[in-house]
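Supplementary notes for students who missed Thursday's class. We covered one full example, reproduced here. Read the sequence, then the structure, then the short commentary at the end.
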Amino acid sequence: MPSLAPKTTVLGFSNAYHLLRRTTYNITKAKILDFATKTPQQALTELFTFSNPVPPSPLNNVGETIVPTAANPTITDSQSTASFVKNDLYWWLHSALKDPSAQHKIVYFLHILFVTDDGASFWTNFDYRELLRFHTSGSLKDLAVRVTQNARMLLFLNNNLNQNTSPNQNYAREFLELFTILKGPQIATGNYTNYTETDVQQAARVLTGFSLTSSIHLDKTARLTSLDSVTNIPTGQVKVNTHDTGTKTFSSAFSGQAITGGTTEATIKSELQNFINMVFDKDETAKAYCRRIYRYFVGRLITTDIENSIIVPLAASLKADNYNILPTLTTLLKSKHFYDEEDSITGDQTIGNIVRNPVELYLHMFSYLIYSFRRTLQILRPSTALWASLRIIPPIWGCRYSARSR
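Structure (token representation):
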């Protein structure tokens, strides 16, 4: 039977390689040999010790920073936006390949969970990724609150157009269907077990008024006047006059819960928090996240035994930990199940080849071949398909490539 019982012996070469392939883009023989002498807990403690990228933001071709941040708002540069985009991609690639921890891997996983495109400004793309990086050791629930107000997400799923006089359900629908609780079996017209069309409509009402002003939130420096009080990362705004202030009543899928409409910026943000609390209080939301964690870090196949013995207890722990992701990852990645040591049954291995998405395929290739970053760029430049993949845009339903063992 699948088991979350921890593996307590040292990893050895094969298991160390397995763990590193699943958790980082920085894989060398020396690192595998080092991890081979560690227990899973010791290895994960090291992998989950995060630090800021070096340098902390993209540079131009003379080494100047090009992205003003709250910590470093004054910069001097003269490059075109096109150059900014290239330098930003190179910086992210370099950071991912040099990162000894699991942080960039988790950032990419969070991007798959809350996927956007890169159609907004260069500055909002950088802020979105910084928001993901901030939450690599934090709560998925907190990320859901903040990504809802993120300028890149507001534009991607049109919530900047969602007003009390003309509701737009796009983000509300994707939030329930793809970002959080997900659809269950359709048991009636408009009833997807975990939520209904009524819930989409009521969620859209909750989300009215969360918007942005292009001249502020898409501008290189003006965006720094609208910062999240906790992350210090630029965020969108609340337009009180376009918010639906009425009470929102949800279906029996959420026990008929009613959420009082806010009338000020503070109470509207509290209303959003109450809505997200309601969604994350459901056991199915925790299970949905744990299935996605499992498929990304372990394997695509979730049997009935894995559902009952791995997903259900992981989901209970994730929910009890306020959706903080690292405790759940630690439990899973140090388990005997992850190393296929809980039984001797053939054909159920969790160790094996991985079907990777394009971004991770190239990152792992560069790491294995120990390419210098300069040579890596020589490969990237002529490859149109690779260039597109490195813009880091999975489809709206997330990248379905994931760990798969053979």
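Commentary. The first helix runs from residue 12 to 23. The chain has a mean pLDDT of 89. If anything here is unclear, bring it to office hours.
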